[in-house]
Amino acid sequence: MTMRLIWLAVLSMAVLLMQAVSAMARPESLAPLAERVSPAVVNITTTTVVEGRTGPQGIVPEGSPFEDFFREFQDRNGNGSRPRRSSALGSGFVISEDGYIVTNNHVIEGADEIEIEFYPGEGQPRDLLPAEVIGTDPNTDIALLKVKAPAPLKFVKFGDSDTARVGDWVVAMGNPLGQGFSLSAGIVSARNRELSGSYDDYIQTDAAINRGNSGGPLFNMDGDVVGVNTAILSPNGGSIGIGFSMASNVVVKVVDQLKEFGETRRGWLGVKIQDVDADLAEAIGLDKARGALVTDVPDGPAKDAGVLAGDVIVSFDGVDVRDTRGLVRQVGNAEVGKTVRVVVYREGKTETLRVTLGRREDAERGPAAPQTGDGQPDSSEKELLGLSVGALTEQMRSELNVGEEVEGLAILSVDETSEAWEKGLRAGDVITEAGQQKVISISDLEARVEEAKEAGRKSLLLLVRRGGEPRFVALNLPE
């Protein structure tokens, strides 16, 4: 018993000692980190030549006999139309000793001249260096530049942004408000933020980011770049602690393609999709809301492989598909020309298709594939599921701008107290499918309703087109 107590005491002392050593190992200052990475951070100045009049306008009406006289008078006095130079500031960082620099696309977009200023320090260029644009990607707001330096440059490397956790310390560096090199510290406030792009994966941070910080790096405590500072959320244009940095794992793929090709080359599947909610999952027969529901299949790789409207893509290239956003990123990250396995849920079972991906940048978005029916539409009207539907007449086609190739039922009116109204259906929409089968007559729609009831379904899946754009809507069936 005594030996056990002694052993516990020794163990406790060892734990306390390890904690003390760990605490002593923690940096008391961010200065060492700043000193190590700052030589790779740069200021970016862009110059754009714009046309504009600086003198008074509208002295005489256009076409007046005095127009030439006053134009000559303005030109003699330097008040005519003449170009002027506009400058802007931003940030960036060096990623290789031979002069590749990463920044935001919006920092250099439309610039006639780009100059790079390096952090003042030993071994760094003292003069401004002109930069060449290697490539840009507006979708992720990333640009890759290149400078010719007299000596190898100090650079930083990318880290794995997927390892960044909410609460981790991060440091932002750049040129805020044109004040020169500046550092701010904070934490990762949130992950996987989406702003407006299909490929968005932003790290949210409360490290101060202001205008001029755009394109600068967001470092972790190891000195690796985990994000590119891109945007802020602010009512007044200044930092309020809500900044967004594009995750490094997105940036790395873009930079590699820009360096190799001068442009991005993203995979293209060739489908229009929407998320699967609980109602759609029940109507389709899925066990839970997951995957991406195909609403349309224009000419392209997916159509060639046999993907159909109404399929739910549940797996892409061996990876489960959670939602449409996930699928878009999975496809975009895939290699152009690669043949992948796509698992779709169709009519109660899964089916594996092999799709050879195209290139998104080259894809031509054509009109939806024509649909044909076997019967003739009738001319009566009927109220079903909170909708008043009728035959799609030639007059309606003209008024709704519906092509001859589209066959279905026109929604004439919607009960504003119904579920159909709550889910966004409106007069003028066209129902082309019900229960994943074509409908061209009211009797077709009634048959689909009865079939769904007999099958024990609680809802019916409709494919609805508005302005040519399709989407699926699940409506609950009456008891």
Protein architecture, described:
The structure is a single chain. The protein is α+β, with helices and mostly antiparallel strands. 22% of the residues lie in helices and 34% in strands. It is built from eleven helices and 27 strands. Strands 21, 22, 23, 24, 25, 26 and 27 form a seven-stranded antiparallel beta sheet that branches. A hairpin with a 2-residue loop joins strand 26 and strand 27. The chain is elongated and about 85 Å long.
Write the topology of this structure.
Layout: H1 2-25, H2 31-37, E1 41-53, H3 67-76, E2 81-94, E3 100-104, H4 105-108, E4 113-118, E5 129-137, E6 142-147, E7 169-174, E8 182-193, E9 202-205, E10 217-219, E11 225-232, E12 243-247, H5 248-261, E13 267-268, E14 272-275, H6 278-284, E15 292-296, H7 301-305, E16 312-316, E17 319-320, H8 324-333, E18 339-346, E19 349-356, E20 358-359, E21 381-384, E22 387-391, H9 394-400, E23 409-414, H10 419-422, E24 430-434, E25 437-438, H11 442-454, E26 459-466, E27 469-476
Antiparallel strand pairs: 1-2, 1-4, 2-3, 3-6, 4-5, 5-6, 7-8, 7-10, 8-9, 9-12, 10-11, 11-12, 13-20, 14-15, 15-16, 16-17, 16-18, 18-19, 21-22, 22-23, 23-24, 24-25, 24-26, 26-27
Gross morphology is: elongated
The secondary structure category is alpha+beta
Question: What is the CA-based Rg, rounded?
Answer: 30 Å
Task: Give me the number of helical elements.
Answer: 11
Largest sheet geometry: 7 strands, antiparallel
Nearest-integer average pLDDT: 82
Termini separation comes to 73 Å
Secondary structure tally: strands: 27
Percent of sequence in beta strands: 25-35%
User: Helicity range of the residues?
Assistant: 10-25%
pLDDT under 50 segments (min length 5)?
Answer: 20-26, 58-63, 364-379
